[in-house]
Design brief:
The protein is α+β, with helices and mostly antiparallel strands. It has one domain (3-117): 6-pyruvoyl tetrahydropterin synthase/QueD (Tetrahydropterin Synthase, Chain A). It has helices spanning 51-66, 80-91, and strands at 3-15, 28-40, 69-70, 99-109, 112-117. The protein binds zinc ion (ZN).
Length: 119
């Protein structure tokens, strides 16, 4: 039986959209919420993955690189979709071999998110 394990993170960042006709072309910021889900079988330690291990990976690979940063310096035209793709690139090779990355969900506001599903 595979069990899904999910954890949420927050970071704040500034961006502006390129070639965009609207107010999002102006410099502004978001407090993003990031959700990362992995799945796997329960191991000898009775866990799929220790939440602390997942937290350390995502904080090191993603949150520490994006929090309080200007996203346009890091990601070309950082729409929620492009930021989510960048996050996938940062995480995909750094998960323990015992788990599969299931999805990455990035909220740009409380009511709006994009998701990359790896299934
Ligand atoms: Zn925005």
């Amino acid at each position: 039986m595979r069990i899904k394990v999910y954890k949420e993170f927050n970071f704040s960042a500034a961006h502006k959209l390129v070639d965009y006709n609207g107010e999002c072309a102006n410099l502004h910021g978001h407090t993003y919420k990031l959700g990362v889900a992995v799945s796997g079988s329960v191991g000898e330690n009775s866990m799929v993955i220790d939440f602390k291990v997942l937290k350390n990976i995502v904080e090191e690979r993603v949150v520490s690189k994006l929090d309080h940063k200007y996203l346009n310096d890091i990601i070309h035209n950082p729409t929620a979709e492009r930021v989510c793709e960048w996050i996938l690139d940062e995480l995909k090779d750094y998960m323990p071999e015992s788990v599969n990355l299931e999805f990455i969900r990035l909220w740009e506001s409380e009511t709006s998110y994009v998701e990359i599903s790896l299934k």
